[in-house]
Structures are given as C-alpha cells and as structure tokens.
C-alpha cells in the first residue's frame, strides 16, 4: 500500500504483531524484526514449558470475580468490554477451559504453544533480553501505536530496547486502552487490518460498534489481490 502511495497515519500490532508494526514504522530493521521473532521462538522452545492461551467472550470482571475458574491463569489482555484473554501453563489452562465450559461461558483456546503475556514465558527472559540489547531501535518514521504500552511509542523507548521488546510478548496486551487513549476522535480515522485473521477488525466491530471505520484486506479464500483492489478503491472514494 505504501508503494502505491497510501501512507498510513500510524501502524499498530497486537502481541507478536507489534514486531511487524515496529518494522513497518521503521523502528526495527527488517533483518532485526525477523531475527527477533525467529530467535524468540527458539529460546521459548529451549527454556519454557508448554503453555496455552484462551479468549473469553465475557466481561473482564469475570476474571476478577471468579478466581475459582481462573486459578493460576494470568489476565493477558483486554480486547474490549466483552472479550479478554488469559494465559499460563498448558495443564492450568486446560482446567480453566473445563471450568469455563461448566459455567457455560463461551471461550476459545488459541492455537499457540506457549503462555505469552504470563509468567509461563519468564524462563526465556534473560536470554531474549540479551539478544534485544544488540538491536538498535530507530525513531519511528510512521507513528507506532503500542498495545504493549497502551499508547503511542515515544522516544523514551529508544534507549531501552530490551525493556520494550520483552514487554511486547510478556506484558499485558492493552488493545482497548490503546484505542481509547490514542484515537479519541473516531471520525478522523479508518483502520485497515492486514492480518491473516482480521482479528483487530473484529475487535473494533464488536468492541466499539460503528464508532470506527475499519476494513480488512486478506480473506480466507485466497482472493487477496481482489480484496486489496476493492479496499484501495473504497479508500480513494472516501478521500
């Protein structure tokens, strides 16, 4: 899209997708962004026990009110008022899933092997931070909105690469907070979801109603060039 003259007013990514957003923004060199993802996967495999993550389609208050259900599970992030996810070790999360089913609470186990955004990945911290310290962060050329920080990325992170880059997979994913803090005037923005699952577009649709205009460009039927052409046509008409 950038090559075709469509320069975004900002970029954002959720969880590991923030590494991609940081690369597009020019904060990470492409080689560093790819290297971090690959090396992180290798370190997790070497140091961490199998984990899991579960999206829960209910108010985050449920997590606070029902510790009996979420015993040993960490609140990994709040997507919107009726959606949050929990994370932890695989056996603990299996018990959570069983308890949610028994309580008739709709939930979805995510297709991941590790408990991102929880202490389940803490054994990887030291080695991953060491790698991050060798990475140079540049000032973003496009504003970068961070779910890890809950707002726009400022210059203060440039001298703390390991802290920021570790916080992306380990800290709470603050999508709802980030949107509320960073985009207070919905009429000024249109969001374009370029992920393979249209997850963020779904968060906006179900969490924020019609307040934000949003599109997704990739579809499960493989007609992505057609989808992109349609999307660019819509953007041109709106402008």
UniProtKB/TrEMBL annotation:
Which residues are in the Malonyl-CoA:ACP transacylase (MAT) domain? 1-235
The record, for Gene3D superfamilies, names: Malonyl-Coenzyme A Acyl Carrier Protein, domain 2
GO MF assignments: [acyl-carrier-protein] S-malonyltransferase activity
Superkingdom? Bacteria
Instruction: Fetch the SMART domains from UniProt.
Output: PKS_AT
Q: Which EC number applies? A: 2.3.1.39
EC top class, in one word?
transferase
Keywords, A to Z, come to: Acyltransferase, Transferase
Q: Which residues form the signal peptide?
A: none
Return the protein name.
Polyketide synthase modules-related protein
The species this protein belongs to is Gynuella sunshinyii YC6258
């Amino acid at each position: 899209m950038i090559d075709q003259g469509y320069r975004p007013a900002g970029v954002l990514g959720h969880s590991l997708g923030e590494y991609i957003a940081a690369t597009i923004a020019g904060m990470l060199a492409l080689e560093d962004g790819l290297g971090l993802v690959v090396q992180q996967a290798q370190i997790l495999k070497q140091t961490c026990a199998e984990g899991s993550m579960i999206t829960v389609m209910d108010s985050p208050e449920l997590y606070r009110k029902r510790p009996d259900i979420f015993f040993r599970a960490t609140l990994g992030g709040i997507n919107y008022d009726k959606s949050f996810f929990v994370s932890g070790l695989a056996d603990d999360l299996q018990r959570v899933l069983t308890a949610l089913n028994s309580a008739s609470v709709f939930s979805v186990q995510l297709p991941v092997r590790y408990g991102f955004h929880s202490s389940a990945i803490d054994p990887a911290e030291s080695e991953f931070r060491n790698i991050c310290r060798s990475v140079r962060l540049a000032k973003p050329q496009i504003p970068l909105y961070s779910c890890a920080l809950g707002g726009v990325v400022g210059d203060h992170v440039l001298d703390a690469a390991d802290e920021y880059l570790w916080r992306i997979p380990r800290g709470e994913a603050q999508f709802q907070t980030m949107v509320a803090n960073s985009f207070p005037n919905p009429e000024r923005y249109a969001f374009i979801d370029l992920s393979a699952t249209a997850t963020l577009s779904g968060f906006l649709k179900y969490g924020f109603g019609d307040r934000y205009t949003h599109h997704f460009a990739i579809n499960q039927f493989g007609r992505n060039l057609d989808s992109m052409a349609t999307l660019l046509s819509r953007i041109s008409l709106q402008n």
